[in-house]
Design brief:
- This protein is an alpha+beta fold and 501 residues long.
- The chain is built from 16 helices and 24 strands.
- It has helices spanning 6-26, 37-44, 97-102, 128-131, 153-162, 223-231, 268-274, 294-298, 321-332, 345-372, 378-383, 388-391, 395-404, 411-426, 441-450, 465-481, and strands spanning 65-67, 71-72, 76-77, 82-85, 105-106, 111-114, 117-119, 137-139, 141-143, 146-152, 166-173, 176-183, 186-193, 199-203, 219-222, 233-235, 240-242, 253-258, 283-289, 301-306, 314-319, 342-343, 484-485, 497-500.
- The strands form 7 sheets. It has a 7-stranded mixed beta sheet. It has a 6-stranded mixed beta sheet with strand order 16-17-19-18-21-20.
- The protein is globular, with a radius of gyration of 28 Å.
- The model is unreliable at 24-32, 54-60 and 114-124 (pLDDT under 50).
Length: 501
C-alpha cells in the first residue's frame, strides 16, 4: 500500500484542529456555573465581584454572591420599614432585575442638587451595593444565562404594593402562565413555563429620563402600610379593622362589625398570614346578605357599590350607625402616602361609596385653597427638589385639575397634591401639630351631617388646626380615589419560590 503524502496528512490535521477549536468557541459553557467574563459586569453592575478576586480572571469558577431580598410585613424591606422610591434607577445599574430594583429602592432619601443630576447628600458617590452595605449576601443561581436570586411570593406581593403595581396583562394555558404589571417604578413581568422555574423581571421606564424629570428624585414609602392597604386593613396603632371583599351579587347586604373576626374571613386573611401579620388582632367588617324590612332600612345608611355579577350591575349595602362611625374612623386613619395605593378592591368600594358625598362638598374649596396658597409656598417646594420652572409654571394648574377631576390614574398628580399639602402642614402656624396618619375631620363631619348641622369648611384667610386637619383628611381621601385595585389573591397563580432574574 502506498505511503500517505506527509503534506496531505498535515493539511488534514490542521483543518480538523481548526474545526474543533471553532466548535469549542461556538459552544455555550458546559458547566451550569460558567458565564463568560465579559457578561458579568453587564449583568451585575455595581454588584460585580472584584476582577482581582479570582472569579473573573478566567470566567466564573464559583458563583458570585448577590443580595438576599425579603419584603414582608414582618421583615420590612431587608429590615427597613420606610424606604425611599425613585421612578428611575439611580447610579450604576446592571441588567438583572434585582440590580435595577435595588437602584430604585433606597434606604435613605436622594436629592437633586443640580438639574438632571441625582445625588445622595451624605454619600454622593455611593453605588447601590454600598448604600445597601448591610444587606445579607448569598450565592446567585444561574438560569438561562441569567444570574438570579430567589424570592418568595409574599415578597413579590409586597414589591407590587410598594411600587404601586396594577395588572395590565395575564394569560394562562397548558404551556404555562404569563402576566405583566405596570408600576410607578417600572414594568413587572412574570413567566412560568410548564415544568420550569417561575421568572420575575423588572424593566425600567423607557418613557422618562433623569434629565427631563421635574419631580424630586425620591419619596418615602412604608412597607407595613403598603401591605395593610393591599390586605384591606386600616389601623390606628391599637385598633385594626379589615374590610370584606367585593360584593358577589346585588344583595341587599348589611355591614356588620365582628370583633377580632378577621380569622373567619376568606381572602386577604391568607395574604396577611403569609406576610407575618397577626390575624387574631384584627376586627372585621363583614358583608352579610340579609333581607331587611322597610322600617329598619329607613334608619340605615344605604350605599351603592360595585359587584362581581357584571360590570354594569351594582350591589346595595346597608350600614347601621355603629358601622358607619367605624367607616368614618377608618377614613380618618388612612395612612399618609406620597403615592397612590395598590388596593384591596372591597376596601376601596366601601370607603369611596361612604366618603364621596362629603368629599364632593369640599372638592372645589380644597382646590381653591391650595391654588391660592400655592405661590407663597413655591420656595419650599423648590427646596424639596421640585424643578423651579415646573413650580413656577404648570404645577398649580395641574394640582387644581387633579382635585376637581374626582378620580384618576396618575401617580405623578398624586405626588403633586400631596407635596403641596405637606408644605402647607409644615408652614402651619396654628401652634398645634397635625398627625397626618390620624385626622378627626371625617368623624366630625359625620356627626354634623347626622345632626343636620353645617359641615366644616375652610373659612377666612387664617388656617387653624381644624382647617389643616380637614385639608389633610380630604387629601388622604383624594389619594384613595386615585389608587388602583390589585387582586390580593393573585399569589395563587404563582409557586412559593420565584427567581428574580
Amino acid at each position: 500500500m502506498p505511503s500517505s503524502n506527509p503534506l496531505i496528512v498535515a493539511a488534514i490535521s490542521a483543518v480538523v484542529t481548526a474545526t474543533a477549536v471553532l466548535q469549542l468557541v461556538k459552544e455555550e459553557p458546559k458547566s451550569p456555573t460558567e458565564i463568560p467574563t465579559r457578561d458579568i459586569k453587564r449583568l451585575l453592575g455595581p454588584w460585580s465581584p472584584s476582577p482581582y478576586s479570582g472569579i473573573l480572571r478566567f470566567g466564573i469558577h464559583e458563583l458570585p454572591s448577590g443580595p438576599v431580598i425579603t419584603a414582608r410585613l414582618a421583615d420590612k424591606f431587608c429590615g427597613i420599614n420606610e424606604v425611599h422610591l425613585a421612578r428611575l434607577p439611580h447610579g450604576e445599574v446592571g441588567t438583572t432585575c434585582w440590580s435595577i430594583l435595588l437602584s430604585t429602592i433606597h434606604p435613605s432619601p436622594l436629592s437633586k442638587d443640580t438639574p438632571g443630576v441625582y445625588t445622595n447628600k451624605e454619600t454622593a458617590n455611593q453605588t447601590a451595593k454600598t448604600r445597601w452595605a448591610n444587606i445579607s449576601l448569598a450565592p446567585l443561581t444561574i438560569h438561562d444565562s441569567q444570574l438570579c436570586i430567589k424570592i418568595s411570593r409574599a415578597t413579590l406581593m409586597t414589591l407590587f404594593a410598594l411600587t404601586n403595581a396594577r395588572p395590565s396583562y395575564s394569560y394562562s394555558s397548558a404551556a404555562g402562565y404569563r402576566s405583566a404589571y405596570a408600576s410607578y417604578c417600572g414594568q413587572w413581568s412574570i413567566s412560568w413555563p410548564n415544568g420550569k422555574p417561575c421568572i420575575v423581571r423588572l424593566a425600567q421606564h423607557d418613557s422618562h429620563s433623569t434629565e427631563t424629570d421635574v419631580y424630586p428624585p425620591s419619596f418615602p414609602a412604608r412597607i407595613d402600610k403598603c401591605v395593610e392597604m393591599l390586605a384591606g386593613i386600616v389601623s390606628d396603632g391599637a385598633w385594626k379593622v379589615a374590610f370584606p371583599g367585593r360584593a358577589k351579587e346585588k344583595g341587599p347586604w348589611i355591614l356588620k362589625e365582628k370583633l377580632k373576626g378577621f380569622g373567619t374571613a376568606h381572602g386577604s386573611r391568607h395574604l396577611y398570614n403569609m406576610q407575618g401579620g397577626k390575624v387574631f388582632e384584627v376586627d372585621l367588617l363583614a358583608m352579610i346578605k340579609y333581607d331587611l324590612d322597610e322600617d329598619l332600612q329607613k334608619n340605615m345608611l344605604k350605599l351603592t357599590i360595585p359587584c362581581l355579577a357584571s360590570d354594569s350591575e351594582v350591589a346595595i349595602l346597608f350600614v347601621p350607625d355603629q358601622e358607619a362611625q367605624l367607616l368614618a374612623k377608618a377614613i380618618d386613619c388612612l395612612p399618609w402616602s406620597s403615592l397612590s395605593w395598590s388596593l384591596h378592591r372591597g376596601f376601596r368600594d366601601v370607603l369611596l361609596a361612604f366618603g364621596t358625598p362629603i368629599m364632593n362638598r369640599h372638592r372645589g374649596e380644597l382646590a381653591m385653597l391650595l391654588k391660592t396658597r400655592f405661590r407663597e409656598n413655591e420656595a419650599a417646594l423648590v427646596k424639596r427638589g421640585w424643578a423651579p420652572e415646573f413650580v413656577q409654571g404648570p404645577m398649580a394648574d395641574m394640582l387644581e385639575s387633579a382635585l376637581l377631576s374626582g378620580r384618576g390614574n396618575s401617580g405623578d398628580l398624586v405626588r403633586i397634591v400631596v407635596a403641596v399639602i405637606e408644605v402647607l402642614v409644615e408652614r402651619n402656624r396654628s401652634g398645634e401639630a397635625v398627625d397626618s396618619d390620624q385626622t378627626a375631620f371625617w368623624r366630625r363631619a359625620k356627626r354634623e351631617v347626622d345632626e343636620e348641622e353645617s359641615v366644616p369648611s375652610f373659612e377666612g384667610k387664617q388656617l387653624g388646626h381644624l382647617e389643616v386637619d380637614m385639608a389633610v383628611a380630604l387629601t388622604k381621601f383624594f389619594v384613595l380615589e386615585w389608587s388602583q385595585e390589585l387582586d390580593y389573591q393573585s399569589y395563587h397563580d404563582l409557586p412559593i419560590d420565584l427567581f428574580l432574574a
